[in-house]
Every structure is written in structure tokens, then in C-alpha cells.
Amino acid sequence: MNDLAFLALLHTHELSRRWDRPTPDDWAKTLATFPLFSGVTKRRLRGLARNATLAEFAPGETIVFAGDRHDGLYIILSGHAKTTSGRASQLLRTGEYFGEAEMIGGRPSSSSVVAMSYVQVMKLPARPVLNLARRHPAITFAMLKNLSTRFRHLEAEACPCAA
Predict the structure, then answer these.
(1) CA separation for the pair 58, 1 (Å, rounded)
(2) Are strands 88-92 and 81-85 parallel, antiparallel or unpaired?
(3) HSE toward the beta carbon, residue 154, CA cutoff 13 A
(4) Dist. CA 124–CA 113, nearest whole Å
(5) Rounded to an integer, what distance in angstroms lies between the CA atom of residue 97 and that of residue 121?
(6) Which residues contact 120 (CB under 8 A, 6 or more apart)?
(7) Domains in the chain: ranges and CATH
(8) Sign of the Cα pseudo-torsion (80, 117, 52, 71, in order)
(9) Are the C-beta atoms of 30 and 95 separated by less than 8 Å?
């Protein structure tokens, strides 16, 4: 487990032990630990968190089905999941995210995402995320870099000659 995953897991565990419901400020602190949101003010992160929904999945449960329409960014708060698209797959860990291609392109998901362990995800609606990305181009660049990495990974799995 890397340092980022440990910090996010620790903070998420701390929030789940509280008697009261975590506040947008609590979730903003969690989001601030992820590289995607580095440099974003706590105020803007609180705004994102206010619109967020949280979900938990058991191992083997599908988080997102291929072909479904969804308009948001999913951030893995704890656990790990696997994307599957045809024969290709990729492991996603705490702090990583998915759904950015569908969010930006407005098209149905091209892959399914399945929980490989107990997974907690935060879904951020597309509009607030895209508005934030317009104000912070580093977010857009990070998503583009992430998509490029995934594309190269899928390309290599589909055709070993491309590697």
C-alpha cells in the first residue's frame, strides 16, 4: 500500500468511526489527499463534496456496468476494483478514479468496474467536476494523462505487437 492509499484509508476509517455523519468539510479533507485535487482550495472541495454520493460495494459486486450511462467521476476512497473491457482489464486502487471519459464525452461506459475487495467510492456529479476542471487546468491535464495511460494499457493487452 502506498502512502497515498494509507492516508486516504486512515482518513476514511476515521470518518466511518464517528457517530455523526461526515460533513462536506470532512470529505474535502479526504479529497485534498488525492493528487487529482492538489492545489484546489478546501472551499472548492467542500462544494464538490456537498454534491457527492457515497456507496460501498462487496467483492464481486459491479460498480458500473459497460453500456450504462453515468455522468460523474468515481473516486475510490478505499479498497480496489478492476475495470474490464473485452479481454483487457486494469486494477484501480485507493485514490484512483474512473468515469472521466464518459463524463467528458457524454457516452455510455465502455467498460465494467467490479469491486475486488470491499470498496468505498465517492461519486462526484459531472457538472461540478467539469466546472472545477475549467478553473484548475491541472485537473484536466491529470485526467488526460490518466486516460492516455489507460488507453496505452488497453492497447498493449489487445495487441501485444503494439508494446
Answers:
(1) 20
(2) antiparallel
(3) 15
(4) 16
(5) 9
(6) 12, 54, 55, 56, 76, 77, 78, 79
(7) 3-150 (2.60.120.10)
(8) positive
(9) no
Report the Cα–Cα distance between both ends of the chain, in Å, rounded. 27
Q: Model confidence over 11-24: pLDDT tens digits?
A: 555 555 444 578 88
CA distance 46 to 28: 5
Tell me how long the chain is.
Answer: 163
Residue with cell 473516486: 75
How far apart are the C-alpha atoms of 132 and 3, rounded to whole Å?
Answer: 26
> Which pLDDT does position 147 carry in this prediction?
77
Q: Evaluate whether 106 touches 70 at the Cβ level (below 8 Å).
A: no
CA distances from 130 to 12, 37, 48, 104, 149 (A): 25, 13, 11, 8, 20
- Cα distances (angstroms) measured from residue 99 to each of 13, 142, 160: 24, 14, 26
Q: Which three cell numbers stand for residue 66?
A: 459497460
pTM summary value:
0.78
Q: Amino acid identity, residue 135?
A: R
